[in-house]
């Protein structure tokens, strides 16, 4: 068995089918659900997935448990709101069916935002390790923005195509997720001894906007580029303000 596709889900009936269908060469599809109340499980099963239940504790623990269930030589870990475009799917298919010296690969990402597939702005150049040899990667414990760590061996970079990430269904959805993620980030950083003050609250968001809109050329994406740069700066403001609030409460 060459490739296992692994996805964690919670109420992803609108996304999971598209995610699975973008990897038609997967020999095994494992969907780990944490209690969906919609038709996520049935959509996944109808798309050929094996659906397992695992109680959610945090993202890194959930994803680690999910990849532990995979039996393929290679594992591709995707979120339910992510899918491969054809070029990247072809490149991954050739890699898992051939020999390579690398233990894992980072994949290029492009965000679908306000109906636009973004090339520039706050997420330009985004890459994540998602393809790896089974047993040679782990998800270290993290409150938010969990990332794979390759244990031994080298990491290659795939250049053809990209992962399409449809992270937000609306601005309201984005705001809800930012509140959740900024709270998780602040709690994790506070536990590490990190602190916030006026400088971080005032200047980090400003720098985030300038770097996203000007240095990363978000202005080329028209209104979506402007909005994403502003909202990205607001997210930074939330994170550092919540971290300051925890110090004050203490």
In a nutshell, what does this entry contain?
With 250 residues, this protein is α/β, with parallel strands linked by helices.
Write up this protein.
It is a single chain. With 250 residues, the protein is of the alpha/beta class. The protein folds into two domains: 3-165, Spore Coat Polysaccharide Biosynthesis Protein SpsA, Chain A (Alpha-Beta Complex); 171-249, no CATH class. 40% of the residues lie in helices and 22% in strands. It has seven helices and twelve strands. The strands form two sheets. Strands 1, 2, 3, 4, 5, 6, 7, 8, 11 and 12 form a ten-stranded mixed sheet that branches. A two-stranded antiparallel sheet has the order 9-10. β1, α1 (16-21) and β2 form a beta-alpha-beta unit. The relative contact order is 0.13. The mean pLDDT is 94.
